[in-house]
Design brief:
It contains 13 helices and 18 strands. The chain is an alpha/beta fold. The longest helix is centred in the C-terminal third of the chain and has 19 residues.
Length: about 375
């Protein structure tokens, strides 16, 4: 297939045998104008650029990315590593990242680790072979050892929360505390005292960070987190269901549960339905992430919002900054993402107390307390 190299771009046609000179002839412009147009130089006259693009589209020219990378030293491909594509949090990140990449004339090479080190190693090797310009690692559990090959080749990296403090590696810090504090204070305002927390797998730094933020927020409202109300989950709906089974078996159940992610919270609500525990009348539930699905649960889920679109934007911004910076400086950038409470319908005023197998409402509790006082007075009389 014939090809013509235009500055740092290599363009091919579908067997038409055309090159840059032919495009210039048909568009009635100079070859220099064609080159500047295709390289998107902003000083090109808009009318001339329009004529060039019209010919390019008519002839079916397209960039040969592999040849372009050999000529320019840049592939214009960014790697994006996520955990599991089946987790609804990540498709929204991928969609946002790809949208920004296309706007900036970049492609993405997607890898899903599936929490499997061998698969991750193969994915990293594939990215090296494709000469990616940088890699965003958005897994909340990526082992640093798996990125050694990328670092050795000086490929810019951006992590979420767990980025090592070394030159050339950027990091996006998630402010878990802000949103979780808002959630705990919201539950306290609704008179909840027995608040349970279902964490993610505690070998993950992000899961530990969310748990710590919850514990600190509980102490701020004057409540020491109770060990029996702290359950380790696995960030899945099934894990949320199993966690509620444990909590429902307590002599005195919690009146509210905060979860380390929305999938866990959805599992809690599913199991609550199975146990005929109405949400939020008997049990308030709060999630974390604000995935799209959380708006459509019944009731809609109150959750801590961590914007997937903003996370993707910051990751892309970090990679662009690294690619365009002076390699000799080996700069390291820090970015911050703030969380906030998204208030919906899965939280409500707490019942006075919830015993195993029954709930004592505020009105019933008050009536019972009055009756106890009356009986006590009669005995004294």
């Amino acid at each position: 297939m014939p090809a013509g190299i235009i500055d740092n771009y290599t363009w091919e046609t579908s067997g038409l045998g055309m090159d840059i000179r032919e495009i210039a002839r048909l568009a009635k412009v100079s070859t220099a104008t064609v080159s500047r147009t295709i390289n998107r130089v902003p000083t090109v006259d808009p009318q001339l650029a329009k004529r060039v693009w019209k010919v390019v589209e008519k002839l079916g020219y397209y960039p040969n990315t592999q040849a372009r990378a050999l000529v320019s030293g840049r592939s214009r491909i960014f790697g994006l590593v996520i955990s599991k594509i089946t987790n609804p949090f990540f498709p929204e990140v991928v969609e946002s990242f790809e949208h920004i990449a296309v706007q900036n004339n970049y492609e993405i090479l997607l890898a899903s680790s599936m929490d499997d080190p061998k698969q991750m190693t193969m994915s990293v090797r594939r990215m090296i072979e494709r000469r990616v310009d940088g890699v965003a690692i958005i897994t909340f559990g990526m082992e640093e050892a798996l990125t050694e090959d990328l670092r050795f080749r000086k490929v810019p990296l951006v992590f979420v929360d767990v980025g090592p403090s070394i030159p050339g590696v950027s990091n996006i810090r998630i402010d878990y505390q802000h949103g979780i504090r808002q959630a705990v204070q919201h539950l306290a305002a609704l008179r909840h005292g027995r608040i349970a927390f279902i964490s993610g797998p505690l070998h993950l730094k992000s899961a530990n960070a969310r748990k710590t933020a919850f514990e600190e927020s509980m102490r701020e409202i004057g409540h020491e987190p109770l060990p029996e109300l702290m359950i380790e989950g696995d960030h899945t709906m099934e894990g949320g269901m199993r966690a509620l089974e444990k909590l429902a078996g307590l002599q005195e159940r919690p009146t509210a549960i905060m979860c380390s992610n929305d999938m866990t919270a959805i599992g809690v609500m599913r199991q609550a339905y199975q146990y005929a525990i109405p949400v939020p009348q008997q049990l308030s539930v709060v999630g974390f992430d604000d995935i799209r699905l959380s708006e459509f649960t019944i009731p809609p889920l109150t959750t801590v919002r961590m914007s997937q679109a903003e996370l993707a934007r910051l990751a892309f911004k970090a990679l662009i900054a690294a690619v365009e910076s002076d390699p000799a400086k080996h700069e390291r950038h820090e970015y911050s993402l703030t969380t906030s409470l998204a208030l919906r319908k899965s939280t409500a005023l707490a019942p006075t107390r919830v015993l195993k197998g029954k709930t004592v409402s505020r009105s019933r509790a008050s009536s019972s307390q009055r009756k106890d006082r009356q009986e006590h007075s009669s005995k004294k009389g």
